[in-house]
Amino acid sequence: MPTAGGLTESVTNLVGLTRYRPIPLHDKLSDALEPVGASYEGAPVTISNLNNGIRVVSRNTNEVVSNVGIYVDVGSRYLAPHSCGSVDFMKDMQMNFLPTRTRTRLDASCGFYRLGSGMQISAFRDCLMYRGECFKSSMQGTLDVMADLALNTDFEDWLVRDNHDEYMWRRGDQWQNAEEVIPELLHQAAYQGNTYGLPLHPNESNVHEINGDLMRHVHNIFFQPSRILCVGVGVEHEALEDIAFNSLGHIREGDNTDLSVQKAPPKYTGGERRLEREMGDWQTHVGLAFETENWHSKDLMAMCVLNMMMGGGGSFSAGGPGKGMYTRLYQDALARWSYITHISCSHSIYEDTALFCYYGTSAPEHAGRLVDVMCHQAKQAADKAATPQELERAKTALANNICYEYERREVQFEDIARQCAVYGKHRSPEEWFPEIMAVTAEDVTRVAQKMLKKPPTVVAAGHELNYLPVYTDILNKFN
Question: For the domain 271-476, what is the CATH superfamily, name and number?
Answer without folding.
Answer: Metalloenzyme, LuxS/M16 peptidase-like (3.30.830.10)
